[in-house]
Amino acid sequence: MSPRAQEANRTPKVKFLVDSTVARLSHWLRFLGYDAALDNNPGDAALLARARREGRVLLTRKRSLGTSSGFTTAVVRPAGGDASETGSASVAAAGSALLLSSDFVSDQLRQVASGLGLTLASPPRCTVCNSELCLVSRAEADGRVPEFVYRTRSDFAFCPQCDRYYWKGTHWDHAGLKASAALSGRRQRRDT
Ligand SMILES: [Zn+2]
To answer: What spacing in Å lies between the alpha carbon of 107 and ligand 1's midpoint?
Structure first.
C-alpha cells in the first residue's frame, strides 16, 4: 500500500452536510473523496436534524446555524496550524457545525482542510451525486466515452448511480492541483 493510501486509511472518514450558502464546496470535497451531501433546504431546523440523523458535520456560512442549540461551532485553526488526527476527530464529531468565513470556494476548502486535517481520501466520489465511483478498465469504457478520450486516456471511473463516466485529463489534473494546494494550506488565485 502506498504511503498516501495508508494515510487515507488512517484519516477519520468525516462526512459532511453542505448547505446552499457554500454549495460549490460539495464538489471539491467529493473530488477529495469525502462524502459531502448537498442540501438546499433553507430551513435551519431541517438541516440540523439531517446532520444529526446522518452523523454529518454541517458546513455553512449562516451564523444562525453555527450557533443553534445543541450544535458546536468548531474552532478552526489558521492555515498551516497543527491539526492532529485526534484533534480532527474531536472537531469533526457528528452534530458539529463549521461556520465558514469566506465567499470564495478555494478559501472555504482551505479552511475546512486546515480545521479538520483533511487528506486525500481517494478514490474521488461523483461530483454530481456524491456516490462512490467505481474504477473501470479502459476496455469497459470503450464506446461509453468520446472516441478521442478513449484513444488518449487510460484511467477511467464510473458512477453507477447516474451512469456517468470520469477520466483523468486536463480538468482532473487541474482539480487535483487545486485540491492539493488547499490541503497544504497554500493560497491560490481566488475564484468564486
Ligand atoms: Zn453520480
So the answer is: 26
Q: Is residue 138 part of a domain?
A: no
Sign of the CA dihedral running 15, 21, 22, 24: positive
Measured over the CA atoms of residue 148, residue 139, residue 160 and residue 167, the dihedral's sign is: negative
Ligand 1 center–CA 8 separation, angstroms: 22
What pLDDT is stored for residue 121 in this prediction? 63
Calculate how far, in angstroms, residue 130's C-alpha sits from the geometric centre of ligand 1: 6
Residue 179 falls inside a structural domain = no
Q: Is residue 151 part of a domain?
A: no
pLDDT in tens, 98-153: 888 888 888 898 888 877 777 766 678 898 999 998 889 999 999 999 999 899 88
| Domains identified in the chain, total number | 1
The pLDDT of 51-60, averaged and rounded, is: 88
Ion ligand 1: protein residues whose beta carbon lies under 5 Å: 126, 128-129, 131, 159, 161-162
Domain assignment of residue 49, given as a range: 3-125
Asked if the structure places residue 135 within a domain, the reply is: no
Beta carbons within 8 Å of 154's beta carbon, 6+ residues apart: 138, 168
- CATH code of the domain containing 29: 3.40.1400
